[in-house]
Design brief:
Quinone Oxidoreductase, Chain A, domain 1; binds zinc ion; 2 domains; 24% helix; alpha/beta; binds NADP nicotinamide-adenine-dinucleotide phosphate; 7-stranded mixed beta sheet; Rossmann fold; 348 residues; 6-stranded parallel beta sheet
Length: 348
């Protein structure tokens, strides 16, 4: 077994603290990775705090993992020792259902095996995430990482990147489309970069006035403050798509009214409480509301390759592991520009 240092939530209310445990030695299809960087996703906070239901404690969050391959199993073909590798939100799935076969393992009919807050398939061994010094993962659930980009800035692509890339691709968003991105955090800033890169006209809808200049430098063509009633009224019926990344309770109806006829709100943000959607807001303009969950392994690789080719990465604030509780507090106040990434060297 491989000894690993990490930070874990021990319950829903107290700060994360150091935790030591062991990873499995690599089996024939496994890749053993020394973790170099791990992004901090708002889902880590929701899960640690039990927002979506009780968690498996101790909980080691983190699903935006990049590192270096230390050792590979005898059957591994995609990696060799010394390569860079990435791990996203899941580390296994059934591999046989229609969704797995279609490369959409995130929708596995038996449920994907989460990188944390899950159990290794067919066992009662909890999975532990990337706020740790190492991880062992089947090569089929491990991504190749280009050495062209800055690794700390690549880590957030493994969740924030694919979560925003996937629905924009699914809907063929591009030239001629008016897209609004709601919420400028980790997902929001990647959504702006991708939507702009795909050729859409992009408006940032944010509740934080000080983010206007940043939104523009990220590439957004327009900025609208969600608390500016007059401005919001002027944007009624104007967007083809709204990519909603908001993590907390908010009025969906207010934003649905900004969609034009046939417009779609893509929900990726996952607030703990259900939303109220009046039927008439949808009916009167044939509007839709859809959800999207991360992306499959093949599409995640496609996104990483696209980012390497187009020089797209996340804007990060690199932090030591022991800053994590402060980072959570700041994210709860929308004070992040635009992704915290833990430098795992701080834990060794
Ligand atoms: P984040 O970095 O904390 O950003 C969330 C942003 O939402 C904030 O920066 C803020 O933007 C806005 N916001 C926060 N509270 C708000 C409120 N009360 N009303 C209006 N806007 C508010 O979070 P993230 O990591 O991007 O994650 C966003 C959400 O997506 C989380 O719920 C997360 O769990 C979920 N998620 C879903 C998937 C998926 O596959 N569907 C994947 C990853 C994450 P402004 O300052 O601009 O207003
Ligand atoms: Zn995430
Ligand atoms: Zn499956």
């Amino acid at each position: 077994m491989i000894p690993v240092k990490s930070y874990a939530a021990y319950d829903a209310t107290n700060p994360l603290k150091p935790y030591s445990f062991e990873r499995r030695e690599p089996g024939p299809n496994d890749v053993q990775i020394e973790i170099l960087y791990c992004g901090v996703c708002h889902s880590d906070i929701h899960t640690a705090k039990g927002d979506w239901g009780p968690a498996i404690y101790p909980l080691v969050p983190g699903h935006e993992i990049v590192g270096r391959v230390v050792k590979v199993g005898s059957e591994v073909t995609k990696f060799k020792a010394g390569d860079y590798a990435g791990v996203g939100c899941f580390v296994d799935s059934c591999r046989t259902c229609a969704n797995c076969k279609a490369g959409e393992e995130q929708f596995c009919e038996e449920g994907m095996t989460g990188t944390y807050n899950s159990f290794e398939r067919g066992t009662e061994i909890p999975t532990y995430g990337g706020y740790s010094t190492g991880i062992t993962v089947d090569e089929s659930y491990t991504l190749r990482i280009s050495d062209k980009l800055n690794l700390s800035e690549v880590a957030p692509l493994l969740c924030a990147g694919i979560t925003t890339y996937s629905p924009l691709r699914h809907l063929n968003v591009g030239k001629g489309h008016k897209v609004a991105v709601l919420g400028l955090g980790g997902l929001g800033h990647m959504a702006v970069k991708f939507a702009v890169s795909f050729g859409a006209e992009v408006t940032m809808l944010s509740g934080t006035p000080s983010k206007e200049a940043d939104a523009k430098s990220l590439g957004a063509h327009h900025f609208a403050l969600t608390s500016d009633a007059e401005k919001m009224l002027s944007l009624s019926n104007s967007f083809d798509f709204i990519l909603n990344t908001v993590s907390a309770a908010h009025d969906y109806n207010f934003y649905l009214n900004l969609l034009n006829t046939n417009g779609t709100m893509i929900v990726v943000g996952a607030p703990p409480a259900p939303a109220q959607i009046p039927a008439f807001t949808l009916i009167m303009k044939r509007r839709s509301i859809m959800g999207s969950l991360i992306g499959g392994i093949a599409e995640t690789q496609e996104m990483l390759d696209y980012c390497a080719e187009h020089n797209i990465t996340s804007d990060v604030e690199v932090i030591p592991m022991d800053y994590i509780n402060k980072a959570y507090e700041r994210m709860d106040k929308s004070d992040v520009k635009y992704r915290f990434v833990v430098d795992m060297a701080s834990l060794k």
